[in-house]
Design goal:
Distance between the termini of chain B: 67 Å
Strand content of chain A: over 45%
Strand order of the largest sheet of chain A: 6-9-3-2-18-17-14-15
Helix content of chain A: 10-25%
Oligomer: heterodimer
Radius of gyration of chain B: 26 Å
Distance between the termini of chain A: 66 Å
Shape of chain A: globular
Shape of chain B: globular
Radius of gyration of chain A: 25 Å
Number of strands of chain B: 47
Largest interface: A-B, 71 and 79 residues
Structural class of chain A: mainly beta
Number of strands of chain A: 18
Strand content of chain B: over 45%
Largest sheet of chain B: 22 strands, antiparallel, barrel
Helix content of chain B: under 10%
Structural class of chain B: mainly beta
Order of helices and strands of chain A: HEEEEEEEEEEEEEEEEHEHE
Chain lengths: 299, 733
């Protein structure tokens, strides 16, 4: 027999159940507007590199389901030209690629949509101009290399924090970076922490990346990084810090990209975060990075 | 010798005045049960086209002859007739007691043909009493002032669940919300689902959406005044209620014959429900209202009122993570009746909105504090001329921090600002048919960090012409300014609005509103109806908006993250209302357009704001079936909200992103909803009880409450609230 108290509780749970059941999630039918594709550029020129790399793809209707490894979006046989100051180069489409499947790496010969130029000296380049022609699409962009900001020194403090009594501690790294930051102006940066654990032959693995703006007249910045790895001794044997002086376009692009990632699929979110682009008639980013590097030993 | 001449002259003057039979009287209108002052009650000289309205302390002043009768009326109360001779012989201020009209009485017929008092009010003015609000159906069974106000023409919101108000095309952060005269910053609970206003603590609510008197300034769009109860001066009363969403308690009563108090507390128990259902996250809100009133003398009163509200969200998985935010308001007010002509009000107030965010390694605690001193003076020179004047001084203290989940070291930006305002408002009756009201506000603002100083002069104008006693045409022009910006990052339902003072990079907002309207009162079948039609146009400039790459990692750089633009809107509002009787309510229709234009947004083209609905038709009905049963219903039908459609999908670094087309260029299907509320009144244990049942969205229409684009599924997902029943109980002793 149900007593009065349990009856009230039962009624309450019924109402709660009703609320959960009768509020529903469903698809909204809309008339899909006309679609015409645009070219998408991904290219980051780094002054310390002797290679320029550019990935070219195209847009698709947002109402078409695709997976990230769908290669139909890649653009092949485009005319891609890069002009570094007064020197113009035609970029070549990479035609070798590898596919990882079922524990094996297969090398296949196919066009990749990735264009490159080798053996270029970007150290003293000032202006970079990109022009792409593909079918009836023409996109272009002009960017300038920022000045190199040299790192003087870095102080690091490693600490841990437990989110609760029963969780594993999480590693955080507080970095105080001293560099010749430009004074009296706003400048934009990316800091990358990469490790080449074990032998120097191994590729560098990115531990963490963060973006910041420097505005003050101080010659340092303090950045807190939440490290994704637990076994730090393994990763922090040889650590490099990259201080990338980036353009405002690059900074805005990365921030908006991150904002959209966090906002999408969020029912409480905004009306839509537009990712800015510096590509005329296209989307994506073509940007120049002035990098300085320092090796540190984090204990 | 000169002294005697002066005395003779003054005596002669008095004789002349008395010979004409004019006496200056002043009085206070109060409720018969609680003896609380009644705001905006109308005082008319019967048979003459002369009248006035009580101020926020229930005070009025008027010139009468000994043979005049005064008619004092207010919605929800019986009209009272008082003989002029009785007032003249009595001590001033004269106290007029109004009793509530029993709702089941025969339809009230105007005792005279003169319904002119309905037309004394400004264009776009609405007043709602606590009784009108408490039986209006709303979400979760919680009677909500903001949700009821959204039924008024010209008022809308960006989301059906939101309590934020967008009035005549203005933003929700451009409304001046006053709790007993003190500005409250962000007074919402439950991520804007519920307002902070507890109807048990409230006497009435006033909304100024069109012509706004010079005594109100500081925000661009409209003014919402929440007037708290003073507390029953005769006997102790207490009560409360329980519903699915929250429970509340109130107590009011006299301490002695001069002092009365009122306290009201509300708390939700969502945290208990969520904990029982093994949810990872918890949430609760509380609010507490209090007011103590001290009748110092017949001519003076002292008030101490306050509001304390808190929202608390926590992570059950980790008790160290929490986010709390809230408002604290304290107000000390003193008013004094100098003589038959002058009433003054002095007040000191403190208002704070804060957020305390502790999550993981992120600790942020921004706030805005507003200290102010205000003076208000009503000067009634004659029945033809009256002046309101006064001003205030504010000291603002801002702490602006970086975004919640940004750099862990709390970069905080402390700014102090000062603001001074002086206003004057002159009302003149040119003739029986033509009333002219003109005012101006002079404001000065200084921001300490950048040493930026701003000053602003804004005129106000109201004209009213009576075509007949119950039919008037009004024209109004209002210019407003706003020195304090409220910036909402990405329109999240999170309480992380950033309050920022205007500066060189972020100039203060200015706006104009032109309104023309007419109103008429008429009788049909022994019932009185008000019909009004308003046309308006408004514009605003220096409106800030966030850029798409908004990144508040450094609050010093906040102005650089914003773009400045403008907005404008125009529309037509119609309302047919029956405010009294067994069946009462209103039908309202609004047609409107609103636009926004910002540099660097939407390809520098104008677009519709998110809250914009071109057509809106509302029905509000309250039916007092019998002594025991009351029925309330609202039906809304409106244009669908605008939506921004993605136009392209692409991949960067193997992750999908969307590129959006023109902002808000697509319209959702029309919106409609029917809510019902039924109340059963009964007596139990020597108290009066109300059992209520409420149904939200009775027709179960799947309106989109929340909408988002699922990139991976390549479609829009809509979350709709279906039919939501609620029950609850209230008791009064």
């Amino acid at each position: 027999m149900i007593n009065k108290k349990n009856k009230i509780l039962l009624l309450f749970y019924c109402l709660l159940f009703l609320l959960i059941v009768i509020s529903c999630n469903e698809t909204l039918e809309i008339d899909i507007p006309d679609f015409s594709e645009k070219l998408v550029v991904e290219s980051f020129l780094v002054n310390t590199s002797n290679r320029i790399f550019l990935k070219l793809s195209k847009t698709v209707s947002p109402y078409k389901k695709l997976s990230w490894y769908d290669t139909t979006l890649l653009v092949h046989n485009a005319q891609v030209k890069v002009k570094l100051d007064n020197n113009e180069y035609n970029m070549i489409e990479d035609t070798i690629s590898s596919v990882y499947y079922n524990g094996y790496i297969y090398k296949i010969f196919r066009k990749t949509g990735e264009y490159y130029i080798n053996n270029v000296n970007l150290l003293n380049v000032n202006k970079c101009e990109l022009n792409i022609d593909y079918k009836n699409n023409h996109v272009n962009c002009i960017e300038y290399f920022p000045d190199i900001v040299q790192i003087d020194s870095i102080q690091t403090t490693l600490y841990q924090k437990k989110l609760s009594n029963w969780s594993n501690p999480i590693n955080y790294l507080k970095i105080k970076i001293f560099a010749n930051f430009p004074k009296n102006q706003k400048s934009f940066y990316r800091i990358c922490l990469v490790s080449n654990y074990g032998s120097l032959d191994y590729e560098f693995e990115n531990i963490e990346t963060d973006y910041f703006i420097h505005l003050s007249n101080e010659n340092y910045e303090i950045i807190d990084l939440k490290l994704k790895y637990e076994n730090l001794e393994y990763y922090l044997k040889r650590t490099r810090v990259y201080l990338d002086h980036i353009t405002e376009n690059h900074y805005n692009f990365m921030k908006a990209k991150k904002n959209q990632e966090e906002d999408v699929d969020n029912p409480f979110g905004s009306e839509g975060i537009q990712i800015p682009t510096n590509i005329t008639n296209g989307l994506g980013i073509f940007t120049c990075i002035a990098r300085d590097t320092i090796c540190i030993n984090i204990k | 010798m000169h002294k005697y001449k002066i005395i003779f002259f003054l005596t002669l003057l008095t004789c002349i005045v008395n010979a004409q039979g004019l006496y200056k009287i002043n009085g206070i209108v109060v409720d018969s049960v609680s003896k609380e002052a009644l705001v905006s009650a109308t005082v008319i000289i019967e048979g003459k086209k002369i009248g006035t309205i009580t101020n926020q302390s229930g005070w009025f002043a008027i010139e009468i002859n000994a043979y005049d009768n005064l008619l004092i009326s207010l919605v929800g109360y019986n009209t009272k007739r008082v003989k002029g001779i009785d007032i003249i012989k009595s001590e001033m201020p004269y106290v007029v007691v109004l009793s509530e009209s029993p709702v089941l009485s025969k339809e009230v017929v105007a005792e005279t043909e003169n319904r002119r008092e309905k037309n004394l009010r400004l264009l776009g003015y609405e007043q709602l009493t606590a009784n009108q609000i408490k039986y209006t159906p709303s979400f979760g069974g919680e009677s909500d002032i903001m949700k009821t106000i959204q039924m008024i023409p010209g008022v809308t919101s960006a989301n059906e669940n939101s309590t934020k108000l967008n009035i005549r095309g203005g933003e929700s952060n451009q409304n001046l919300i006053l709790i007993d005269g003190v500005q409250a910053y962000n007074p919402m609970h439950l991520y804007d689902f519920v307002s902070s206003f507890n109807t048990d603590a409230i006497s009435n609510v006033e909304l100024f959406k069109g012509s706004i008197s010079s005594e109100y300034y500081g925000k661009l769009s409209s003014v919402l005044k929440i007037n708290l109860k003073e507390g029953n001066k005769y006997k102790l009363r207490w009560g409360g209620g329980i519903s699915i969403l929250s429970s509340q308690l109130y107590i009011e009563g006299p301490i002695n014959q001069n002092i009365s108090y009122m306290f009201s507390l509300r708390r939700t128990y969502l945290d208990l429900i969520l904990r029982l259902s093994n949810s990872d996250a918890g949430y609760s809100f509380n609010d507490l209202y209090g007011k103590v009133t001290y009748q110092v003398s017949k001519k003076s009163k002292l008030f101490l009122s306050g509001y304390w509200g808190l929202d608390y969200a926590t992570d059950f998985g980790n008790e160290l993570n929490y986010n709390k935010w809230g408002n604290h308001v304290i107000h000390l007010r003193y008013n004094y009746i100098w003589n038959n002509n002058i009433f003054s009000d002095f007040s000191f107030s403190y208002s704070k909105f804060f957020t305390n965010f502790n999550w993981d390694i992120y600790h942020k605690s921004p706030y805005v504090i507003d200290y102010s001193f205000k003076n208000l003076n009503d000067i009634i020179m004659s029945n033809k001329n009256s002046i309101k004047t006064g001003g205030d001084i504010h000291f603002y203290d801002f702490k602006i921090t970086s975004e919640m989940f940004s750099r862990t070291n709390d970069i905080s930006h402390f700014i102090n600002s000062y603001e001074g305002n002086f206003f004057i408002n002159w009302k003149h009756n040119f003739s029986e048919k033509f009333i002219f009201e003109m005012g101006s506000v002079y404001s000065y603002f200084s921001e300490n960090k950048t040493k930026e100083k701003s000053s602003n002069f804004e005129p106000r104008l109201n004209l009213c012409y009576y075509l007949s006693d119950n039919f008037s045409i009004k024209v109004a022009y209002t210019q407003m300014h706003q020195f304090i910006h409220s910036i909402a990052p990405y329109n999240y339902y999170l309480p992380n609005d950033i309050f920022y003072p205007s500066s060189e990079k972020l100039p203060y907002m200015k706006g104009n509103q032109f309104t023309i309207g007419s109103s008429k009162v008429f009788n049909v079948l022994n019932s009185e109806y008000d019909v009004s039609l308003d046309l308006y146009y408004n514009d605003m400039k220096n409106v800030p908006n966030i850029k798409n790459h908004f990144d508040n990692t450094d609050p010093y750089l906040l102005p650089d993250q914003l773009t400045i633009g403008k907005g404008w809107g125009y529309g037509l509002e119609f309302q047919l209302a029956k405010k009294e009787g067994k069946v009462n309510g209103w039908i309202s229709y609004c047609w409107n357009r609103a636009k926004r234009l910002f540099d660097g947004i939407n390809n520098n083209e104008a677009y519709d704001p998110k809250f914009h609905k071109t057509h809106q038709l509302n029905f509000v009905v309250n039916y007092n079936i019998s002594e025991k049963f009351k029925l309330g219903a609202i039906y809304i039908i409106s244009s669908g909200q605008p939506l921004t459609l993605p136009s392209h999908k692409y991949y960067i670094d193997d992750k999908p992103y969307v590129y959006y087309g023109n902002i808000n260029s697509f319209r959702l299907p029309y919106y409609s909803r029917l809510d019902l509320n039924i109340v059963y009144c009964f007596n139990m244990w020597n108290g009066s009880w109300e059992l209520f049942g409420s149904i939200f969205n009775l027709l179960m229409r799947k309106n989109p409450s929340f909408l988002y684009f699922d990139i991976s599924e390549a479609r829009f997902e809509k979350i709709s609230l279906g039919l939501i029943p609620t029950i609850g109980v209230k008791f009064h002793y």
